[in-house]
Amino acid sequence: MNWAAVDLNLLRVFDAMILELNTTRAGDRVGLSQPAVSSALGRLRHIVGDALFVREGNRMVPTMRAEQLAEPIRTALRGIEDALGNVACFDPGTAKRIFRIVGSDYFSTLLMPGLARAVRESAPGLTIQMLDHPSSAVARLISEGAVEMAVDSGSVMPDWVSSQRLYRSVMVTLVRRGHPVIAEAGLRPGDMIPPDLFCALPQVLMSMDGSLSGSVDQPLKEKGLSRRIAVTVPHFHAVALAVAEADLIGNLPEQFAARVAALLDLEIYQMPFAPPPIDVMLYWHSRHQSDAAHEWLRQRIREAMIFHRTAEA
User: Fold this and answer.
1) Residue 274 belongs to a domain
2) Which of 176, 189, 233 is nearest to 210 (CA)?
3) What range does the record give for the signal peptide (predicted)?
């Protein structure tokens, strides 16, 4: 292998391709055009003596040699980033960088108004991408460098993941205004729904995998009760929309519920046996702890989320 021909940017392109398996998206990740990515891959193929990526139907897949190179190259790149990051300065006014944050539509709804405003005003060259993945994938995505940060509800993380609590949330029940059964029971917004009525009313559940149980069910089970799940949907917004259009009830974190209730003319009630409060956390890889750009963005995220703290948080 001709080591003199190895350009650091070629390795960055390779790492981006391993993550994206698409030349256009890989280019977006490293700030290059699609033709420039293809050219870089061509040079790297010549140096390595391997195709590295081959087309399989409508997608690109790595060769065995590419898979062997992936982790050593990523480790080397992260080491260089760490070494340079300790001395590099960050000017938000001129910086151009992409940050990927994983978090459900619940978190992006609360985070993005404030964060988008702060970024546009102070760091217009930054691009923020919100991605939606299950909590079980967060540690892997951070480890692979597929995302820089994650907003999630208190998942157990490896030791190499740094974290900070953003706020605490409890679950509440959303009901459409004028729901006939709620009205007949004489309940008003803010009241606690009686256990028997809560369990009898058909409910919509946010479930990414279609499971028919959630955090609400364990407290009910401990009381010998169970509820009727009529609909499952994969997003929090879909819960609110279903409640707004049907005689269903839905249970959502209080901060998110307050935001969508105002938009969809919904009412908020207390649950009879609410699950324990949820700590909403910001996660990032410990190697980025002293990265000036990371520190700046983490502070903006904390500022954007501070308005969602309750008195107990």
Assistant:
1) no
2) 233
3) none
Query: What are the φ and ψ backbone dihedral angles of 232, each rounded to 5 degrees?
Result: -120, 145
Q: Is the pLDDT score of 2 beyond 60? A: no
Residue type for position 51: A
Neighbours of 217 (CB within 10 A): 18
Which residue type sits at 163?
A: S
Domain count, the chain: 3
Tracing tokens 């700046």 back to the chain, one arrives at 296
Residues 182 and 231 in one domain: yes
Tokens linked to 5:
């021909």
pTM of the prediction? 0.72
Which residues neighbour 25 within 8 Å (Cβ) at sequence distance 6 or greater?
Answer: 16
Q: Residue 86: is its pLDDT beyond 80?
A: no
Q: Phi, psi (5° rounding) for residue 250?
A: -140, 150
Residue 178 and residue 229 in one domain: yes
For residue 152, the SS3 value is strand
Would residue 92 count as lying in a domain? Answer: no
Structural domain boundaries, residue 57? 3-85
Q: What is the DSSP letter of 281?
A: E
Same-domain check for residues 191 and 265: yes
> Which of these three, 46, 62, 85, is where a domain ends?
85
Q: Over the stretch 241-299, which tens digit does the pLDDT of each residue have?
A: 999 999 999 999 999 999 999 999 999 999 998 888 989 999 999 888 888 899 999 99
Secondary structure of residue 209 in the 3-state scheme: coil
Helical segments of the chain, H only: 8-20, 23-30, 34-48, 64-85, 105-122, 138-144, 180-184, 195-200, 217-222, 236-245, 254-264, 292-305
What does each C-alpha distance from 83 to 147, 161, 296 come to in angstroms?
20, 19, 19
Instruction: Judge if 176 and 265 occupy the same domain.
Output: yes
